[in-house]
Amino acid sequence: MKLLSTGNPKTLKGMAQGYMTYILHLAPADLSGREVCPKRTAGCTVACLNMAGRGGMFKRGETTNVIQQARIRKTNFFFEERDGFMEWLIADIKLAIKQSAKLGLIPAIRLNGTSDLAFEKYGFVDNGVFYQNIFARFPEVQFYDYTKVLGRKVKAISNYHLTFSAADGNDLDVTKAIEQGYNIATVFGIKKTMPMPETFMGLPVFNGDESDLRFLDPKGVVVGLYAKGKAKKDTTGFVKFPSIMLKVA
Ligand code: SF4
Fold this sequence. Notes:
single chain, about 250 residues, globular, binds iron/sulfur cluster, 7 helices
C-alpha cells in the first residue's frame, strides 16, 4: 500500500511551476470510526473533496469503492500501527524525492489531503534517531496543508506552510487566523468562467485554483477557490456568495 499519491488535476497544474505534489488521503471526518477533522463543519463535511473524482464513483448498488477502502485502511494504519505508518511514510517521501528529481521537479508534500491532523505533534524514531515530527525528518522538503484548527504550533517549522480554511460557522476563528497572519482559503459560489471577487473581508483575493502550491501564495490574501462538486449546492454557509457579500458590505 502506498501512502502518498499524485494525479489530482489541480496539483498537476503545479507541474507547470516546477513542483510535483504528493498527497496523503486519509478517510475524512469519522468515516474510519476515528475523527481526523476536529474542526470540521456541517458544510465542509458534505462538500469534502473525499468524494471528488474517482473517490466518489461507486458501482450501482454499492456504497464504497477501492479508493474509499484504501483511505480507511491508511487511517487505521495511522492510528493502530503508528511506527509502521511513519516508516512507510518516510519510504514514500524518499521515493517522492527521487521520482520528482528524475522529472526535474521539486517535491511538495500535503499530508492532510482529506484530514486535518496536527502532524507536528507526531514524533518518531528513525534509524535510532528521534525526530519531533515528519517535517524535522525532511527539513529540505516543502510540506503544506489547509487547516481549520487554530493555534497549531507550527510557527517554528520553516518547511511546513498552513492556509486557514473558512467554513460555515468558523468566522471568529477566521478573524483570529487573519490576525495571526494566515492566508484564508475561501470557497466562492461562482462559476469558473467568472472572475474571483477582488476583495473579501477587506483582503485582496488571490485565485487559488491556478495551482495548489499554497506556500507560494502572497501573504495577507484570501485564497479564492471555485465551488466544486457538492459544494455547488451548499446552503450551510460553507460556500460564500460574492453577490450576497456585496449587499452586506
Ligand atoms: S475538515 Fe477538510 S477533510 Fe475534513 S471533512 Fe472538512 S473538508 Fe473534508
